[in-house]
Amino acid sequence: MTVNLDPLDPPTAKQMYLDERRQEVADATLQSHEYRLKQFVQWCIDDGIDNMNEISGRDIHRFRVKRRNKDELATASMKSQLATLRLFLRFCASIDAVEPGLDEKILLPTTTGKNARDELLTHDRAQKVLTHLEKFQYATLEHTLLAVIWHTGLRVGAAVGLDIKDYDADGQHLRLVHRPDEGTSLKNQTESERFVALSDAICDVLDDWLSAKHPHKLDEFDRRPLFATNRGRLSRNRARSIAYQFTRPCVYENKCPHDRKIETCESRPTEYAYGCPSSLSPHPIRRGSITYHLQSDTPERVVSDRMDVGIDVLDRHYDQRTKQEKVEQRRRYLPDE
Fold it and tell me: Among 286, 285, 279, 282, which residue's Cα sits nearest to residue 86?
């Protein structure tokens, strides 16, 4: 759908955004947003962009590269800068100043290391998240989704593509099927099709979700999605939002490791959860699940088949065990002689 955009210069757009947020956030938060957007507006002016309508994903990329390389912005600061820019562009889309969805083209950097492979949900942290959900939101969409992703290590696309019929309660497994013509493809196409075993505990959660809280809505192809909202099949974006929301430490243990005031933190509202330096998308949850399986002595071939990841990729991008951990695990298989 084509949207008719109304011309708007960057400085005016920034001021309109700040005026809109003034009654919603604390003064300190508003000042932080003003400072970050000042950098973006100045970049637009220096680059000759005088109309927000002209900004594209490539422009956002050039700004990101400039802030990272020329300005040498630290990773944590870059994440805050881009998180604010996301909110700004989302506001601009709401007033027809930029194309809808431009904000979704902004990818936030990781903050736990120089390489994305370092970012993962640890087992201890996963248990805190799931214990919180089990206590306060048992068998809700959020609890069931995160419990299944942690237990199975599924990619978010594979998880949201499941139908109710793909869950076998008696056989205690999920069936992954590649359905590209109906909007639910698997990453490695038919090579990703498989059965994934489930534990008693996960089956209990799924059974309770389906019997008590599932909205039982059809998707646009008249399929019955396993993970559904009142609008139909759960979208990948909404699934990512759920991950961001519940991996914030302030949610599951009511404290902030970043010395922010929880009540006034700009990332406290659910829709802004991705701005929290500690929040995680579904992929680090998958990475954490894979690592935990390996740390628990699950054979690499079993992990490879279950998680749909090649052995070489598993070693290179997912295995977070230390060399010492690997040595001690191999020692358990040595003969006593």
Answer: 279
Type of residue at 33: H
Q: To which residue do tokens 């559904």 refer?
A: 228
Give the Cα separation of 300 and 293 in Å (integer): 9
CATH architecture of 10-109: Orthogonal Bundle (1.10)
Contact 136, 145 (CB under 8 A): no
**Strand 167-168 to 173-176 pairing:** antiparallel
The pLDDT tens digits of the residues spanning 136-165 come to 999 999 999 999 999 999 999 999 999 999
Kind of pairing, strands 232-233 and 228-229? antiparallel
Strand partners, 225: 163
* CB contact at 8 A, 29 and 266: yes
Give the C-alpha separation, 294 to 310, whole Å: 14
| Listed residue (69, 93, 92, 83) closest to 32, CA to CA | 83
**pLDDT, position 187:** 85
Say how far apart CA 155 and CA 43 lie, in whole Å.
37
- What residues does each domain of the chain span? 10-109, 110-330
pLDDT in tens, 61-106: 889 888 877 777 777 778 888 889 999 999 999 999 998 888 888 8
Domain covering 110-330 assigned CATH 3.10.50.40 in the classification: no
